Amino acid sequence: MSKRTGILLVVSGPSGSGKTTLCRRLADEQEARYSISCTTRAPRPGEVDGRDYHFLTQAQFVEKRTAGDFLESAEVHGNLYGTLKSEVTGLLERGTDVVMDLDVQGAAQVRACEDPEIRQAAVDLFVMPEDESELLTRLSGRGTDSEEVISLRMKNALEEISHWPLYTYRLLSRSQEEDYTRFKALVFAERLRVNRQINL
């Protein structure tokens, strides 16, 4: 007999790629769990500590980061965000798959993690439109942004896309349904990998 360890599925991609939709749908269908991140920002109305985020003071966050407790961390708009290793490894040990929607810097931090459990569990995927014209269409689709804003978003997206060769898998985005079908196929295939099986 054997049981399976969980997969740590790290998903990156530029704005407009559809990566967040894929991750949320996988979690909504209970095929995987989002790990609960830590943040130093104040809770928004309706947010609950331990359910939406672990809300920490700046000092608490820095202490944990100094101790090496975070799998990945970043500063966004003046606030600190991070994912606790213990939050992820606890789920993986129970055979629960974890999905993380990370930028290329966060994904690089996960890749660099030397924790054996993380290294065995981690799989990374880069989601991107098939070509630049499709990317531009998606970025300008709302019709509310100025040309300058769209140009900046396009520049940032192309810089992110340049990192795709660092990933194990790449998904060229088409329709939402087709993307999700291929996304789930990747998850199911990874669940069958021999190195995820533990003899009891």
Automatic annotation (TrEMBL):
Coiled-coil intervals, chain numbering: none
Transmembrane segments: none
Reaction(s) catalysed (UniProt annotation): GMP + ATP = GDP + ADP
Gene3D superfamilies in the cross-refs: Guanylate Kinase phosphate binding domain (3.30.63.10), P-loop containing nucleotide triphosphate hydrolases (3.40.50.300)
Enzyme Commission code(s) on record: 2.7.4.8
Stored Pfam families: Guanylate_kin
SMART domains (alphabetical): GuKc
CDD domains reported in the protein's UniProt record: GMPK (cd00071)
Superkingdom of source: Bacteria
Domain Guanylate kinase-like as annotated: residue spans: 6-188
Keywords: ATP-binding, Cytoplasm, Kinase, Nucleotide-binding, Transferase
Positions with a binding annotation for ATP: 13-20
Protein's recorded name: Guanylate kinase
Species this chain originates from: Luteolibacter algae
Gene assigned in the entry: gmk
